[in-house]
Amino acid sequence: MDAILLQILNGLDKGSAYALIALGLTLIFGTLGVVNFAHGALFMLGAFCAVTLQRLLSLSYETIDETKTDFLGNPLKVKTPYVEGWFGPEVGGAIIDWAVPLSVIIAIPIMVGIGYAMERGLIKHFYKRPHADQILVTFGLAIVLQEIVKYFFGANPIQTPPPDALLGVVNIGAAFGLEIAYPIWRMVYFLFSVAIIGGVFSFLQFTTFGMVVRAGMADRETVGLLGIDIDKRFTTMFGLAAAVAGLAGVMYGPINPPNYHMGMDFLVLSFVVVVVGGMGSLPGAVLAGFMLGILESFASTTWATTTIPGINQIIIYLVAIIVLLTRPRGLMGRKGVMED
Amino acid sequence: MLGLNKKDMTLLIVVAILTLLAPFILNPFPVDSGMAQFNAGYPDLMQRFVIFGILAIGFNILFGLTGYLSFGHAAFLGVGSYAAVWMFKLLSYNVVPAILFSVILAGLFSVLIGYVSLRRSGIYFSILTLAFAQMSFALAYSVLSNPKFNLTNGETGLQVYADDPQILHRDGLPDVPHLFGWAMRDNFLELKLGGWEFTFNNGYYLCAAILLVVFYLSIRLFRSPFGLMLRAVKSNQQRLNYTGLNPKPYTLAAFIISGMYAGLAGGLLASMDPLAGAERMQWTASGEIVLMTILGGAGTLIGPVLGAGFIKYFENIFSKINDNVLHQWFSFMPDGMEDFLVFIVHPFVGKGWHLTLGILFMLVVTFLPGGLVEGGQRLGRLVRSRGKKPEDPKDPEHHPKETPHVAE
Amino acid sequence: MSKFNVTRRGAIKTTAAAGAGLALPTIFTSSAYAITNNPTGGSVTLGFNVPQTGPYADEGADELRAYELAVEHLNGGGDGGMLNTFSSKVLDGTGIMGKKVEYVTGDTQTKSDAARASAKSMIEKDGAIMITGGSSSGVAIAVQGLCQEAGVIFMAGLTHSNDTTGKDRKANGFRHFFNGYMSGAALAPVLKNLYGDDRKAYHLTADYTWGWTQQESIAAATEALGWETVNNVLTPLASTDFSSYIAPVLNSGADVLVLNHYGGNMVNSLTNAVQFGLREKQVNGKNFEIVVPLFSRLMARGAGENIKGIVGSTNWHWSLQDDGSKAFVKSFGEKYGFPPSQAAHTCYVQTLLYADAVTRAGSFAPCDVAAALEGFEFDGMGNGKTLYRAEDHQCFKDVLVVKGKENPQSEFDLLEVVEVTPAAQVTYPPNHPMFGGDEASLGQCNNGA
Amino acid sequence: MGILEVKGVNKRFGGLQALGDVNLSVAENTVHAIIGPNGAGKSTLLNCLVGKLIPDTGSVMFDGQSVLGRTPYEINQMGISRVFQTPEIFGDLTVFENMVIPAFAKRDGSFRMHAFESVASEKDIVAHAEEMLTEVNMQDKIHMHAASLSRGDKRRLEMAMCLLQEPRLLLLDEPTAGMARADTNNTIDLLKEIKEKRDITIAIIEHDMHVVFSLADRITVLAQGTPLVEDSPEKIRGNPKVREAYLGEAA
């Protein structure tokens, strides 16, 4: 029982990353009709916002400690971060410690800016082009973005730890007499994702802006005829989608250390998620994200892998094939979307 | 001649001349000149140009004609390679059964995958093929390489071991892939002319001969009623349906043909170098095929071959330019200038070749949607509009055709 | 523009150039694959085949630094590094047998296909007479096979799988790096000392050849101590999140987790295991422990704090205090500003060993070089007395058991050496069942033509 | 007994009764128009005839054979061709290629793997296509890309593609929708000419009364998914029920 609940939690946690990326992909696809292969790269850029902030906060001045030596036998240069110099080790240390949550604040404007620049600078020239061209150009962009990150940060993963206060595990089953020890940060990530998903949905549901966008997703031409400048709002949607992917990335860092190719690792999976959910369906993307996360978790259990060897390797793709063959438009897809 | 019209015949002849003289054309620089870095006329790369050309020609039959974007074509390449190596292991190092079996097995796989995937179109089709290919990769990389049932030899790649049966192997035959005793990796001629060196490799000429055959077949197919129907599928499936034609068997046939081309390429790859690695089935490998085709010009006859050559050239030549080489290039400059130029160029070559490739893709897709072929056409038009008499196009890349795929 | 691409074809070039191009063409027909392994010009070209793109690019970059340093030292530049401490004294800083050492580089992309293509290009186009490098076993075995066919020497870089010098051993291939069996043999006694002989181990294993051989080795070595292997779960290579593999460990009754992962997999699985609080747990009345059999300092950096106190094994570490290691760390550190990794070390040593073998053999012919390396005993290269065993071309030397340092002094100071396991303890017979048994054979050495 | 017999066809979409008990008989060699206000179910009926939709109940017989459950291409092979409201042609292909495709479909059926002979070598097909293009006065546009044709020419091309197959029944879905007066008249003339030259049955769905009354031999008026009345044009013109339901609003 405990084990099953634990795997469900793991699934939800994995699923929340899938769902956030897929949500952004679907927003872009639903509003702009663009297949964005650079979306994984946005997730990666988000994670590297946190890395960058952490590096900036840790910028240090060097003092020479004559009593110690470095690996070459020279006097050791001791590094002290400027923030610790300015605010004292207590406050300064705390600021560095909270680098990841702090990055959320700087990541939002940065990611919206990147999204805006991408849409205005590149994507908008591709609205009328075939999907294959969109895939190719965004794929090229993804390569360029990840190579730039690699140039500056290297290929190895970079540790972005959570704040000390959020380290460790909490027994969330204690109230029910169950033993379900779960890492605090993973709980934070899940709740954060739910909040973001909720935020996006209520934004689309309750604001005029959201209504126009939803109408535009349903029928772009009609909304255009009403004299609403739908394109401008769609650009903003691109910024929003980029921010969602970026935030998913920022907060993901402490779960698994970011590296330059983490975007590509998630890209294929998120496309599968979007398609299983149904192209252009926001609830579908979220549902499929969580569903595939949970399925993947259960396929990883010893029970599953001994029953069907290698099932953990192929489960996602197997599910995608079955769903697409039995439900042609995915779980919640609309008719006529992306079928030509 | 050969059932081709004059224009196509010219194209075929040009391609034939280019492939047969490739050892000369690809080695334009003397070996000890600074530019020798850019020579591509060594057997391995020449073989790769041709083999990936075949792969791209096949992919183009599916994608260029019908518009169905398969993201799993590398799976057939992998299946073909495994099939060929298994033939080496079981029968002998003769490449004929290996290549035949790789084409047949890839054909069977494509019947299966195509039948299922073609029940959907658009991006759903792409994702289905991607899913199949990723499954094949995962199976080949780990599941099917377990010690109890080792079909693929996993990470290391399938290769021939001394204790393999090789029931048709006889003494006197080379212990490497061969065509009735003619070893693939041997060079039948090495020519040294002044500062130049040219290598004529057995394997390359086998691949080149096969390329010419399949290129010829693809021209015939492009000009045939079948090819026309495939283009009609891409253009308007609704109209095709209401014209009394069933798009399904046409697309399935195109899928199978292109799968068999990929299998052939896989078989040839294994025949040139008898090792089949699972990585050639990964989705990024499929992506590379797509990139080749679109970069060269999807739907055109020669485009995919150019695209394949372009990418392989990048992968093999650009990735080998290291800082040491850069310093030597710029060594004639004053020191500060030299360091500055090396600093500027450094991120784009050697380990940065992915970056350059990514930038190039974006530029080509943005400004030349028809790929390199369109670039050639524009160049041709530019030359003509300047009032010069248009030259008879020698190079198919600069072939000034109005539309790339008009069957006349 | 200077001449940088001089290869062993040099002689022909110079004569032909003298004939000013008008000379009659020289035509060679040959059934040979590789060009004669006898560089006749003033220089000799080595091929450095390392991952420059993909997840192991940083490791590849470090290998390349080591190679550049080795070439510099061989050509008499710099401070000479390990040339001064190496027990064999035939290398005198004039290149190899008086020929200047040049090199070409290639990108393996950590794919066996790409690695072979790049090695072939270095052999066919640039006339490299020795190929070295790599950061994974699949690539090493694939390239080793190629070099065997092409008739050039392959000096493996970082490859830890038993198979490289086990069932896939080749007469033209040589490995300095240690292997899975040695990790197990070195770790087991230390684990017994630290954690006792009554332990239940749970293995998470990367689902491909290297993972399996390492798991097999570690399980065998620890079971011999009395440990019990509770479970072995295979994880897909493409996994990025290991939470669903870690969670069942908690309820399995195991008190040790062995992570048979490398690279990104290792960083993530270790991070996840620590996240789930495994290290704070008490099971069967004992502290729960995590073991990472193959450590790499470069990767350990990615795991950050999580590495502290975790035990593993490594081929070499910069903090070693023997003369060879100190000389190498000094020249590497002064040139690049940070200490070398174990991958850099093994690559540097391999290059020197090759140059030394050529010089002692007095020939570039691979079979002569191989003969000079076989059974060669040397010292002063950082791992104490080392033997290049003739039967399987594996180096036998001391293995380091290391532990993540609790109070690192600098960003490089991540591991501390717990024990130096003597070579004798990690030696195994060449026909050991994990190494292909009696059937494994080097085959015939191939001289090319 | 007409060539097309529709009996008791019902079609519901959720709560909406799109077609309610439709009976229709199209006599051979006539022009039969189906008219009705927007939402009367004209398009739904048409889609049921060509296999795009399957009625919930009822039967659709063409020349004594049921078309229900058959795919559009099978129905086409039976001898029914359809012209769409917005011309559906192969935009990426040339006019000539557009014409050749139906010719192959007519000769070779729904699939044939003729991958090695060239299109140009199929002399009879080429001749057939060129002949038809001449009949519709498009021989000078033979090498143009279909997508670059004017709307009127696209319509003519589509019509020619259908006629080339010598269908026994030609279905026209608002062939003059969105056309200028002059173009409409041209289309009427073209259709008249077509009708004169061959034995063909035409069923036409149309909004434009001018077109209907110029061409039709018989007219069926649909309202709210049910046929209101079926009669000759003269009678329809004077029918008060029709005036009330349809013409009254239109006038």
UniProtKB/TrEMBL annotation, chain A:
<keyword id="KW-1133">Transmembrane helix</keyword>
<dbReference type="InterPro" id="IPR052157">
    <property type="entry name" value="BCAA_transport_permease"/>
</dbReference>
<feature type="transmembrane region" description="Helical">
    <location>
        <begin position="266"/>
        <end position="295"/>
    </location>
</feature>
<keyword id="KW-0029">Amino-acid transport</keyword>
<dbReference type="Pfam" id="PF02653">
    <property type="entry name" value="BPD_transp_2"/>
</dbReference>
<comment type="similarity">
    <text>Belongs to the binding-protein-dependent transport system permease family. LivHM subfamily.</text>
</comment>
<dbReference type="GO" id="GO:0022857">
    <property type="term" value="F:transmembrane transporter activity"/>
</dbReference>
<dbReference type="GO" id="GO:0006865">
    <property type="term" value="P:amino acid transport"/>
</dbReference>
<feature type="transmembrane region" description="Helical">
    <location>
        <begin position="233"/>
        <end position="254"/>
    </location>
</feature>
<protein>
    <submittedName>
        <fullName>Amino acid/amide ABC transporter membrane protein 1, HAAT family</fullName>
    </submittedName>
</protein>
<feature type="transmembrane region" description="Helical">
    <location>
        <begin position="15"/>
        <end position="35"/>
    </location>
</feature>
<keyword id="KW-0813">Transport</keyword>
UniProtKB/TrEMBL annotation, chain B:
<dbReference type="InterPro" id="IPR043428">
    <property type="entry name" value="LivM-like"/>
</dbReference>
<feature type="transmembrane region" description="Helical">
    <location>
        <begin position="203"/>
        <end position="222"/>
    </location>
</feature>
<feature type="transmembrane region" description="Helical">
    <location>
        <begin position="123"/>
        <end position="144"/>
    </location>
</feature>
<feature type="transmembrane region" description="Helical">
    <location>
        <begin position="355"/>
        <end position="376"/>
    </location>
</feature>
<feature type="transmembrane region" description="Helical">
    <location>
        <begin position="49"/>
        <end position="69"/>
    </location>
</feature>
<keyword id="KW-1003">Cell membrane</keyword>
<feature type="region of interest" description="Disordered">
    <location>
        <begin position="383"/>
        <end position="408"/>
    </location>
</feature>
<feature type="compositionally biased region" description="Basic and acidic residues">
    <location>
        <begin position="388"/>
        <end position="408"/>
    </location>
</feature>
<dbReference type="GO" id="GO:0015658">
    <property type="term" value="F:branched-chain amino acid transmembrane transporter activity"/>
</dbReference>
<feature type="transmembrane region" description="Helical">
    <location>
        <begin position="289"/>
        <end position="311"/>
    </location>
</feature>
<keyword id="KW-0472">Membrane</keyword>
<dbReference type="GO" id="GO:0005886">
    <property type="term" value="C:plasma membrane"/>
</dbReference>
UniProtKB/TrEMBL annotation, chain C:
<dbReference type="InterPro" id="IPR028081">
    <property type="entry name" value="Leu-bd"/>
</dbReference>
<comment type="similarity">
    <text>Belongs to the leucine-binding protein family.</text>
</comment>
<dbReference type="InterPro" id="IPR051010">
    <property type="entry name" value="BCAA_transport"/>
</dbReference>
<keyword id="KW-0029">Amino-acid transport</keyword>
<feature type="domain" description="Leucine-binding protein">
    <location>
        <begin position="44"/>
        <end position="405"/>
    </location>
</feature>
<dbReference type="InterPro" id="IPR006311">
    <property type="entry name" value="TAT_signal"/>
</dbReference>
<keyword id="KW-0732">Signal</keyword>
<keyword id="KW-0813">Transport</keyword>
<dbReference type="Pfam" id="PF13458">
    <property type="entry name" value="Peripla_BP_6"/>
</dbReference>
<dbReference type="InterPro" id="IPR019546">
    <property type="entry name" value="TAT_signal_bac_arc"/>
</dbReference>
<dbReference type="GO" id="GO:0006865">
    <property type="term" value="P:amino acid transport"/>
</dbReference>
<protein>
    <submittedName>
        <fullName>Amino acid/amide ABC transporter substrate-binding protein, HAAT family</fullName>
    </submittedName>
</protein>
From TrEMBL, chain D:
<protein>
    <submittedName>
        <fullName>Amino acid/amide ABC transporter ATP-binding protein 1, HAAT family</fullName>
    </submittedName>
</protein>
<keyword id="KW-0067">ATP-binding</keyword>
<dbReference type="InterPro" id="IPR003593">
    <property type="entry name" value="AAA+_ATPase"/>
</dbReference>
<dbReference type="GO" id="GO:0005886">
    <property type="term" value="C:plasma membrane"/>
</dbReference>
<dbReference type="Pfam" id="PF12399">
    <property type="entry name" value="BCA_ABC_TP_C"/>
</dbReference>
<feature type="domain" description="ABC transporter">
    <location>
        <begin position="4"/>
        <end position="249"/>
    </location>
</feature>
<dbReference type="InterPro" id="IPR032823">
    <property type="entry name" value="BCA_ABC_TP_C"/>
</dbReference>
<dbReference type="InterPro" id="IPR003439">
    <property type="entry name" value="ABC_transporter-like_ATP-bd"/>
</dbReference>
<dbReference type="GO" id="GO:0005524">
    <property type="term" value="F:ATP binding"/>
</dbReference>
<dbReference type="InterPro" id="IPR051120">
    <property type="entry name" value="ABC_AA/LPS_Transport"/>
</dbReference>
<dbReference type="GO" id="GO:0016887">
    <property type="term" value="F:ATP hydrolysis activity"/>
</dbReference>
<dbReference type="Pfam" id="PF00005">
    <property type="entry name" value="ABC_tran"/>
</dbReference>
